């Protein structure tokens, strides 16, 4: 069966311009995007802007979204099905029929020999809802196992469990517009300025317009803290103690909403009994590490403010107590009735573009589709009856960490991984490596040919990428948006739902005769409404769910193609937005009692504490300009300029204690693994803690896969891993020399093997060249002897310029061809290595002048002007040094003034928080 496209991408003529409204594929904000394709004689050019009519962003895009066009090339794509593991050197191209027949046969063999639970799937919040629905239907209703989990387990499953405990259903009850009406916004465990920058800008605009009081609760002082009125630097893992303390304070000081509690909630007495140890604000201060003064200010402000929005994200969810953390926050909102009202609610912010869509279709191992429960026999019968399927999963499957442990132990014989890279992203990531090495049969669907995970694939299937996919996604405010294809798909690439249908049909299963994503969406909508009692007719909650798409069940194909961004529930066609923009306004929750439940939460210390052997706590997270494991954002030179290398943020006093120098290499170890990172000394992190980003993988760095170190302990309820609290030790990583190598695009394959033989390296994309940061333990003299092997440009057509100074430990090499810069290598003490942006800029020149040659060989720019310093504004390439100099020279006091002078912050706005921080630093200097 061939895929029939929803939007026909007809053969385009020269000079034709087409614009398509679609949705950004990055974070859970779910921004609308306008993608314009211009067809010329030499090909097609794609440009991306924000969709001014989309209610999630109204035209704004962050730096990642603004650079989406950079990620659409085919150079890293898998373009046809492949058989054989790359690790064994047996990979070869095949056709779709052969590949899907092999998968179907292997799955049937596993079922016949080992049983249905011997097969597992690990999928992704990067899937569209239609893909997600098809694979969950196949696994739970036809293979008859619930062994399907998703990388969303790693970011929001704790919030899901907390919502179900408190509300009876997995619901985010508010909308983004509520942040614009709030009087107080509390950001818990969220570096919103970097991870959800468009929503952060909406909050900052509300603060500017109405003086919203902003609180940030985070162990680190991040960019999000720059404009906050109050930063609470909480000790890792102590959020339950903080919010239990707030709950006790609210009760003792008579800030409870007694009518709301009596009419719409239950369980308060039991919850209060469990929080008595936090009845003393002094005890809360000691446990959380937050000063009494700051605690008192926070408690009083929350108590006295009616419109409070509490946004919580990964710092809450990614914890061995993540579910209790989320419920302790929700408890405070229930106690004060700050829910279901304009500008007042707890708000879980998801990390991925379709984490919410995955929740709708039962994407987790312990869920059924349409917000139905896997352990409920009535719900099992409902779903099986609707699907008319031969089987239905009747017990929870294995969650992510347990799933890969089962793969390693041999319980799982076959696994299909879709749109994710678990060898990088899971905790104790080397265990995932071992598991896939041992697994009898591994299928991977991806757009990238080479990732840390695809190398273990027995079958590698080419999926569609952003721009080629067609379907829907749901963002963090329950808003369904179309992700519409605007590019022709590569000939061999297919939608993930299509590959599932091929395997299902070859296993003899009916029910998968979809022609397109529209067919799947309509079935998904109908299941959501099937035996789902409308709210206004509710007298029993047996099958009532707020998740209901009844009003979309009769969409025509044309209506689906033109579907406007829509929040659920959609009880009827033509429903006005204000009906569902915030839920629970009528006090109706999804529990059988129709009441919300207070959940008793007990403050506990994190599992695996620091020790003499591992005296520091590692916290991991995202950075501003990268996404997940960099397989997409790593393709954009613009996104590699802000934080180019894997790094570790450490307090200067800890650095001194352990012999770490700023900018030098350091080794970080836990009981699970280790990696090598660049030290970044910062007062923004507390003593005893370090921070490292999650993004780097073995394709772009020698030893920076931070998942290897991460504590694999999980929340007992949600199964979400503890990414924020891993005991580690650190030490300097000594090398004989460090250097930087640039190789023009198209030539990097010539140096790849030599680079990867270095003891440490990082690969960085620039506009016209690939940059490698290098270090090795061979002596400089031994390295110089092998320069020709490292740089194999020995043809007489290449011109070499060399500078050797053994006494200064310098070795410079520049290679040109027909006046064009091909490569340059600098080995020197760190302070004498050249400005990276300056060297990168020379690769843009078609021919180098004599002065440029001299400067390039010397490793020093012709101009004596100051370096830009660390890049702050990626859009306009404005560095820290120029911003600081301009602030001081012109006595600037507002980021808009900086934008007026330098353009910095004037495009996507992702750097505005950092600019505010620089203004504050300069103002502090003035005061001194």
Automatic annotation (TrEMBL):
Keyword match tRNA processing: no
UniProt entry tagged with the keyword Metal-binding: yes
Pfam name, any one: Molydop_binding
Keywords carried by this UniProt record: 4Fe-4S, Iron, Iron-sulfur, Metal-binding, Molybdenum, Nitrate assimilation, Oxidoreductase
InterPro entries: Asp_de-COase-like_dom_sf (IPR009010), BFD-like_2Fe2S-bd_dom (IPR007419), BFD-like_2Fe2S-bd_dom_sf (IPR041854), CT_Nitrate-R-NapA-like (IPR041957), MoPterin_dinucl-bd_dom (IPR006657), Mopterin_OxRdtase (IPR006656), Mopterin_OxRdtase_4Fe-4S_dom (IPR006963), Mopterin_OxRdtase_prok_CS (IPR006655)
Cofactor(s) the protein needs: [4Fe-4S] cluster; Mo-bis(molybdopterin guanine dinucleotide)
Superkingdom classification of source: Bacteria
Positions of the 4Fe-4S Mo/W bis-MGD-type domain: 17-76
Family from the record: Belongs to the prokaryotic molybdopterin-containing oxidoreductase family. NasA/NapA/NarB subfamily.
Name of this chain's protein: Nitrate reductase
Lineage: Bacteria, Pseudomonadati, Pseudomonadota, Gammaproteobacteria, Moraxellales
């Amino acid at each position: 069966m061939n895929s029939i496209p929803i939007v026909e991408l007809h053969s385009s003529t020269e000079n034709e311009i087409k614009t398509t409204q679609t949705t950004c594929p990055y974070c859970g904000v779910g921004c609308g995007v306008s993608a314009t394709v211009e067809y010329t004689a030499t090909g097609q050019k794609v440009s991306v802007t924000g969709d001014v009519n989309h209610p999630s962003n109204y035209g704004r895009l962050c730096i990642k979204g603004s650079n989406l066009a950079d990620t659409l090339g085919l150079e890293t794509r898998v373009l046809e099905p492949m058989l054989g593991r790359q690790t064994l050197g047996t990979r070869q191209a095949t056709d779709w029929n052969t590949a899907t027949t092999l998968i179907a046969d292997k799955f049937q063999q596993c079922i016949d020999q080992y049983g249905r639970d011997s097969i597992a799937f690990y999928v992704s919040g990067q899937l569209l809802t239609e893909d997600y629905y098809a694979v969950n239907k196949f696994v739970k209703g036809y293979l008859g196992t619930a062994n399907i989990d998703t990388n969303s387990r790693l970011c929001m499953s704790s919030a899901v469990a907390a919502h179900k405990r408190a509300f009876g259903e997995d619901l985010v009850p508010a909308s983004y517009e509520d942040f614009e009406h709030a009087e107080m916004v509390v950001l818990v465990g969220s570096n919103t300025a970097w991870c959800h920058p468009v929503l952060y800008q909406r909050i900052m605009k509300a603060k500017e317009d109405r003086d919203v009081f902003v609180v940030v609760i985070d162990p680190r002082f991040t960019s999000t803290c720059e404009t906050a009125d109050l930063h609470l630097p909480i000790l890792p893992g102590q959020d339950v103690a903080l919010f239990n303390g707030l709950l006790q304070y609210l009760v003792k000081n008579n800030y409870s909403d007694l009518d709301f509690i009596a009419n719409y909630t239950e369980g308060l007495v039991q919850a209060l009994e469990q929080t008595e140890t936090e009845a003393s604000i002094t005890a809360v201060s000691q446990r959380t590490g937050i000063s009494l003064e700051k605690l008192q200010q926070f408690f009083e402000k929350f108590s006295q403010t009616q419109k409070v929005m509490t946004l919580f994200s990964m710092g809450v969810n990614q914890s061995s107590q993540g579910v209790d953390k989320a419920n302790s926050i929700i408890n405070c909102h229930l106690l004060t009735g700050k829910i279901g009202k304009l500008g007042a609610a707890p708000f879980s912010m998801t990390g991925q573009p379709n984490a919410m869509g995955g929740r709708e279709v039962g994407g987790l191992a312990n869920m059924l589709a349409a917000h139905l429960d896997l352990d409920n026999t009535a719900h099992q019968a409902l779903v099986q009856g609707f699907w008319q399927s031969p089987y239905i999963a009747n017990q929870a499957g294995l969650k992510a960490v347990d799933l890969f442990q089962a793969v390693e132990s041999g319980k799982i014989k076959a696994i299909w991984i879709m749109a994710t890279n678990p060898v990088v992203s899971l905790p104790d990531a080397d265990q995932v490596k071992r598991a896939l090495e041992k697994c009898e049969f591994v299928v991977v669907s991806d757009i990238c040919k080479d990732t840390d995970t695809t190398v273990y694939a027995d079958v590698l299937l080419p999926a569609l990428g952003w721009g080629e996919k067609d379907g829907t996604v749901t963002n963090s405010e329950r808003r369904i948006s179309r992700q519409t294809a605007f590019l022709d798909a590569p000939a061999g690439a297919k939608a993930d739902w299509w590959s599932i249908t091929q395997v299902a049909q070859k296993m003899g299963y009916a029910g998968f005769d979809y022609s397109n994503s529209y067919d799947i969406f309509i079935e998904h909508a109908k299941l959501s409404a099937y035996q789902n009692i409308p709210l206004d007719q509710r007298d029993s909650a047996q099958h009532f769910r707020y998740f209901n798409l009844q009003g979309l069940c009769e969409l025509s194909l044309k209506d689906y193609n033109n579907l406007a961004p829509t929040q659920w529930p959609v009880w009827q066609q033509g429903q006005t937005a204000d009906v569902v923009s915030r839920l629970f306004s009528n006090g109706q929750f999804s529990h059988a009692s129709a009441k919300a439940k207070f959940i008793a939460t007990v403050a506990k210390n994190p599992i695996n504490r620091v020790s003499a052997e591992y005296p520091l706590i590692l916290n991991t997270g995202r950075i501003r300009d990268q996404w997940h494991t960099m397989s997409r954002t790593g393709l954009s030179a613009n996104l590699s300029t802000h934080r180019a290398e894997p790094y570790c943020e450490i307090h200067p006093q800890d650095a001194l204690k352990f012999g770490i120098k700023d900018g030098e290499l350091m080794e970080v170890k836990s009981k699970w693994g280790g990696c090598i990172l660049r030290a970044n000394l910062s007062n923004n992190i507390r003593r005893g803690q370090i921070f490292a980003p999650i993004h780097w993988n073995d394709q772009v760095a020698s030893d920076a896969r931070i998942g290897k170190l991460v504590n694999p302990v999980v929340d007992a309820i949600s199964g979400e891993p503890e990414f924020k609290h891993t005991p580690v030790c650190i030490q300097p990583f000594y090398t004989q020399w460090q250097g930087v190598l640039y190789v023009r695009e198209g030539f990097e394959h010539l140096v790849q093997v030599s680079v990867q033989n270095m003891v440490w390296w990082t690969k960085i994309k620039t506009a016209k060249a690939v940059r490698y940061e290098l270090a090795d333990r061979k002596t400089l003299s031994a390295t110089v002897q092998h320069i020709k092997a490292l740089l194999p440009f020995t043809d007489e057509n290449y011109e070499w310029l060399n500078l050797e100074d053994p006494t200064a430990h310098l070795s410079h090499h520049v290679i040109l061809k027909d006046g064009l810069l091909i490569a340059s290598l600098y080995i020197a003490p760190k302070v004498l290595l050249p400005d990276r942006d300056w060297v990168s800029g020379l690769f843009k020149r078609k021919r180098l002048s004599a002065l440029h040659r001299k400067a390039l060989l010397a490793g020093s720019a012709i101009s004596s002007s100051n370096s830009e310093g660390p890049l702050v504004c990626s859009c306009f390439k404005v560095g820290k040094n120029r911003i600081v100099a301009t602030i001081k020279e012109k006595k600037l006091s507002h980021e808009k003034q900086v934008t007026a002078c330098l353009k910095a912050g004037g495009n996507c706005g992702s750097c505005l928080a950092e600019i505010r921080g620089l203004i504050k630093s300069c103002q502090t200097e003035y005061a001194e």
